[in-house]
């Protein structure tokens, strides 16, 4: 493999790295070839670079300009690179004086900005512009792009019954909103405050409400917590969305039912024990005595055979006895 065209292994790290020092994707092992005349500064030269950062929010499916404030018109023949970071993934957007393949038909480049004709929720992330002038002078600007998406209908996860004195957790989830929505809870169409003690309606309840995660936790559950619950998601984009209504019933522990179940179980165990005792007393489980068997010696067998009288077919049957009655 020629030098400057493929990945090399960094000493001690054991993962591939582009010979230019910039991988195409942190989660992959391939990279763009080095472009002639576009060599990067030595490793570590980004340390101490001037960095600016800002946040831009635009609705989904709209156009947007992302500016590179690191670029200055006074710079002479600067080299400009754009990268897109989302989570742990880092992808080159503009490199070697050209747009990379995923962006060629969507983005227009100029020295001061990149222009998206339309953006989707997948374009939410950090856009990094690096400007290198000479061999060591580096400027960098970052733009956090948030593509605004209204929330979809949330789902309320509510138990249909809860035991008084126990802990119950209600959850509200929504997956489409950008930025992530905040959540509110309602009981019997009334908005639940974050602190129940501030409301005459909810002061007899004991709960905590996390508007970021959408969790409503009752600890402990009381009889006042019975009601119809639903949640609402909003992020200032579009209209707030409400979930379906779910009824939760707070019930006492059924002591009578538990006692009845224990009594029935004891009766069943007693019947089983009586049946086993009765079977033993009648010998159903006793082992029958083994039959005795022995083998006669040859002498004993011969003696028995000689003493046995052979049958005679000519022998007359014994005469019947005559009984004389004397009067």
UniProtKB/TrEMBL annotation:
Keywords assigned by UniProt, alphabetized: Cell junction, Cell membrane, Disulfide bond, Glycoprotein, Immunoglobulin domain, Membrane, Phosphoprotein, Repeat, Signal, Tight junction, Transmembrane, Transmembrane helix
UniProt feature, compositional bias: Low complexity: 291-312
Predominant place of localization: other
Membrane-topology descriptor: Single-pass type I membrane protein
Listed transmembrane segments: 258-280
GO biological process, one term: regulation of membrane permeability
Annotated segments matching region Disordered: 291-314
Domain of life: Eukaryota
Pfam families in the record: Ig_3, V-set
GO CC annotation: bicellular tight junction; plasma membrane
Ranges for domain Ig-like: 33-139, 150-247
Sequence similarity: Belongs to the immunoglobulin superfamily.
Assembly: Interacts with the ninth PDZ domain of MPDZ. Interacts with the first PDZ domain of PARD3. The association between PARD3 and PARD6B probably disrupts this interaction. Interacts with ITGAL (via I-domain). Interacts with CD151.
Protein name: Junctional adhesion molecule A
Record lineage: Eukaryota, Metazoa, Chordata, Craniata, Vertebrata
